Structures are given as C-alpha cells and as structure tokens.
Structures
1.
Amino acid sequence: MIKVIVMGAMGRMGRAIVQQSLASEDIEIAGCVERKEHALLGTDIGNGIILKSSIESVVQDSEQTQASKIPSSLSLPVIIDFTSPEATINHLETACLLGCPMVIGTTGLNKSQNEKLAKAAESIPIVYAANMSLGMNLLFKLAALAAKALGNEYEVEILEAHHHKKVDAPSGSALKIAGVIAEALERDLDKVAVYGRQGSHGPRKPEEIGIFAIRGGDIIGEHTAMFIGDGERLEITHRVQNRNTFASGALRAARFAANASPGLYNMMDVLGI
Ligand code: NAD
C-alpha cells in the first residue's frame, strides 16, 4: 500500500484526489491537511478522516498507530500538494525534514520558488508537473514535434482557457507548451514570448510566441497550440472534461515517487513517454 497525505484536501483538486484514493486498491490516505484557518479542521470529512492542519500531526498520528509494526522508512507517506505556491514551498521544507517524497501540482511558482524546489529534489524524490493529465503531456511531445517539423515558416500562438477562480495566468501548462516549442525552435522564451496584445504594437515579429489567457465560468482547462502558416493552420487542442484526469495522474505520480530516488521528475518520466 502507498500512503499519501493530501494537502489542500478541501480544494477542487484535493477533493478529486481524496475520492480517487478512496476508490483505489493500492493507495491509502494517511491524512488530509488544510490551511490553519479552515472551518472543518478537526472534523470528520468522511470515511473517518479527520482534517488536520499540518503534515507533522498526520505523521505523528500515523507513527503512533503503526510504528511498532512497520519500519518508519517504509511507512513514509507521499505528500500530494495542489495548494498555492507559498503553501507548497512551506510543505516542501517539512517534506525534506521528514524525508517524504512529494507530488506537486501547484502552478504559478516564481523563479526563486522553482529554485527551492530543485534544491529540495537533491534530498527527496519530487514529481512536479503543471499538468498531470496523460493527454496534455502527450500534447507537449506533439507540439515539440510539430514545431521541429514546421520550423520558422509557421507562426506560433498559444491559447488557454480556465474557470474564473483560477488565480494565475497564463496557466503553467500554456507556459510549458511555449517552453517546449521555444526549445524545439532554439529560441529564448523570455525574449520571444508575447503575453496578450493591445494597442499599437506594430506588425507581428516572426519569432514571437503569443500566449493568451481566457477566464470564465467553470472551464476546467483548455489549451491550443497553433502553428499558423501561409495558407494553412495546424491546431493541437487538449480539453479537460473533469478533474479526475489530473487526480489519476497525481496518484500515478505518487506510485512513482514512492519508489524513486531523490530527484526532480515530471509527468513524462512518470508516464514513460
Ligand atoms: P482550490 O483553491 O480549489 O484548492 C486549494 C486548496 O488548498 C484550498 O482548499 C486551500 O484552502 C488549500 N490550502 C491553501 N493553503 C494551504 C496550506 N497552507 N495548507 C493546506 N492547504 C492549503 O484550487 P485548485 O483548483 O484545487 O488548484 C490548486 C492548485 O493546483 C492551483 O495552483 C492550480 O493551478 C493547480 N492545478 C494543477 C493541476 C495539475 O495537473 N498540475 C490541475 C489542476 C489544478
């Protein structure tokens, strides 16, 4: 059995991960954690799971009940984190102290937070992916392939759409698509990315990679990479129909992380694509 601690368990992703974990035969929920102000802390959120306010309290409880039977190195849970960048970095410090592997789906990490993540991966296994779905990770591959095949003759624009509660833009997945295309075309994304267009910006430069974010309603996540040529346009689109696709990806990542050596992995490592 692989034990998991679900951070942000009452959030949209947290709930989907809890549901899939309960339905899974090889995943056991060691604990569910929410932010310190959450109204349901200390209550039973279903299936006898008491909502906790820290990783430490979950690990202490689990050690008290099981340490006599299972060596602690084997009982270390995988921490699954879909919360906020600040919270994720705090959880990362605790994970390093305890030696727990992590699966991180939180998006919007800044440069210094990404550096902290890479540093932590020197001591624990971390799977970090802005999008945990199989289809999207395949899109990353296909976008790189299309960019290489079509080359500089085709202009690249990326469009993403999400629900109105999403706090970061553009999405981590849109940035990743832009990143793989820029790499395939040997361009520096920092120099060629254009985030939305407004006013008198002049003609489009051929090397630009345009990135646009739509926000509204309950759209879970849609991404299109466009390769626009003279006389034709190739579009590769991925649409999420429900959050289960991310949750099952997160559990696949947890199975992988539980048995991995320290290091920073992505979903392509997990899925072997
Ligand atoms: P959400 O707001 O519904 O859930 C976040 C939860 O985290 C909330 O319940 C919040 O109370 C909790 N939280 C905040 N601080 C915390 C702390 N310190 N300790 C414990 N819990 C804390 O958001 P969501 O839609 O579930 O998305 C969460 C994150 O996951 C976002 O960054 C989103 O972009 C990302 N996301 C990633 C993927 C992926 O495949 N990688 C998919 C969907 C969403």
Note: The mean pLDDT is 94.
2.
Amino acid sequence: MTKLSDTRKVRAYTNIALIKYWGKRDDKLILPTSSSLSLTLDAFYTETAVSFDESLEKDTFYLDDNLQDEAATLKVSRFLNLFREQADLKAPALIKSTNYVPTAAGLASSASGMAALAGAANLASGLNFTPQELSIFARQGSGSASRSVYGGFVEWQKGTSSADSYAVKIDNADWDIGMVVVVVNKNQKELSSREGMKQTVATSPFYAGWIESTAVDLVNIKKAIGQRDFEQVGEITESNGMKIHGTMLGANPPISYWEPDSVLAMQLVRKLRKQGIPCYFTMDAGPNVKVLCRLSDSKEIKTAFLNYFSEEQLIVSGPGSDLKEITF
Ligand code: ADP
Ligand code: DP6
C-alpha cells in the first residue's frame, strides 16, 4: 500500500497515429484488427498520481481538480483492478490526473490519460513492470495508450494474443519532424472513438478494403521512416488518414467528425504544398487537423495559418519522449 506522502507522479505524452487504429477484434482485451503507427508529441500530455489507501471508502478520481462522476470513475477503477489483481491489493485508490490536452476532443487524451494512469499504478503497486508489459496494460485501458509508453515513432503490433499485442519504438524521431496542431474545436465530441470504430466495423462495406490497404501503408511508412524520407512519410500519412475517414463515411449511420474549418485547414495544407512547403494533414476522431511537417518549417506554416485561425488554435509540437516519472 502507498501512503499519500509516497505518491509519485507520471507523465505520458499523447501520440497521433500516422497509420490509424480503427477497429477491434476483441473488445474486452482491446486487440486491434490491424497494427498502427504513431508519432508521440511533446506539446500534449497527462500527469497522473495514484495512491492505494485503505482509509478510503472507494476509488476517488480527480481530473483537472474536478471530482469525477461514477461512470468516469468506474472506467478508471476497472483499469486499476488489473494492477490490484497482479499485486494482490484490495485498497481503494486516490487518482489525481491533469490533462495538458483537451479531453475527448480528438487530440488523444485517452492515449496519454491511460498511459499515465498505467505508469502511476505501476509505481503505486510496486509491480515494476517493464515498458513492454506497461504497454500491454495501457492497451487494455485504451488501444492508442499502448503507444504512449514510448516517445518517437511507435508501432503497436496487433499481435496474436494479449501477450504479444504491444507497442515498440521504431525510431527516436530525433530528426527534423513535428506537427502543427490546428484546434478547430476543443469541445468534447458526441461520438467516442470506441463507439465510432465499433459502428464502422459492424456496418461499413469499405472496412475490408481499409484493413487490406493499411497493412501496405504500414510496411511502406516504416521503410520511409528508416530512410528519413519525410515526403514519403507525409504522403502515406495523409493517404491513410483520408482512407479511414472514407471508411467511416461508409458506416450506417454515416460517421463524420469534420467541421467546415477542418476542410479549410486541409485546403491550406494543399496550398502550402503547392507553394513548395512540404506538409501533410491527418485527422482522428474529432474535427482537429494535425499538420505533419519539418519542424524547421513549422513557423512558416503557422504564420500562413494565422490568416485564418487564431494564435491559441495553433500549437506547434516536436516529438515527445517516453513515459516518465516526474518530481513534484
Ligand atoms: P480523445 O480523442 O481525447 O482520445 P476519446 O473519446 O477517445 O477522446 O477518449 C476520452 C476518454 O479517455 C475520456 O472519456 C476518459 O475515459 C479517458 N481519459 C481522458 N483523459 C484521462 C485521464 N487523464 N485519466 C484517465 N482517463 C482519461
Ligand atoms: C482515430 O485508442 O481512443 O485516434 O481503444 O476504444 O479506447 P479505444 O480507442 P482509442 O482510438 C483511437 C482512434 C484514433 C486512431 C489512432 O489513434 O490510432
């Protein structure tokens, strides 16, 4: 059991998929239908501290200093049970988390949130899991969280079972690469990723095509990353992102997370590219647009976007690092 005075805080960075995960073959264990690949971002992260404390009546979850309701707490409790089972712990937990990323807005709060929770639970329970084991646990909180255990370019290998479905770092991304995140709308979305992907798998006639083509995209992007071929990485990223949104549109009822300003941002990226600045867009389960670029071009890209978007809507990020413990 940990005392509050021993509480240790963990920071995990969000990640944005360049090759998307969209669909599960096992809902409970969160095993994906396809492997995915992401870039971890240093501008957005979550910090979480967990303490197991027998004097508590029940699990108590604060997010951004607000006591969370039963449903949100239940999600966290279920996840912590995985650690309690392993450590043979019965004590309730106090969880304090801060998101330095908008929650549930398609900016991957579930990835950094669940990875930070896994890291903090690992410390509080004294289980000392390896990063690979942590990735397996984080995955069971939210699929994309498996990738937030690591910095740089990270692949979540779909695996054959729970034991080998985890993320691996494939490149430190310590080269000239980053993202300009265009925050079109930071309000919580109406349809969660979890529900959106379920609906797509169940009803979209394009889903089989998505699975087939994403496997090819993954092989090609890994090759391009290995060669540090930025343009090739960007072209595959943009194409993969659009294919997943096409597949969502084919669902019944159709799913679209886009807003008019999402389209404006994509048009601007195409315009900048025509002007000779290599940059590429991708979108997730939300209206926000992420522009993959050379970090050295990010200032120029941001300046162009400032003609249409405000300063607060434009966040430049370099690659983030591995999940880590931070001192108060
Ligand atoms: P996003 O696009 O932000 O990832 P999702 O709908 O996929 O949105 O996930 C949001 C969910 O992730 C929240 O409802 C919550 O369950 C979980 N989450 C977000 N932040 C945290 C956190 N700091 N700690 C625990 N869970 C979190
Ligand atoms: C579009 O990992 O949030 O961002 O596993 O159900 O928690 P659950 O879903 P989540 O989905 C992420 C979807 C995505 C693509 C990606 O990050 O690969």
Note: The radius of gyration is 19 Å.
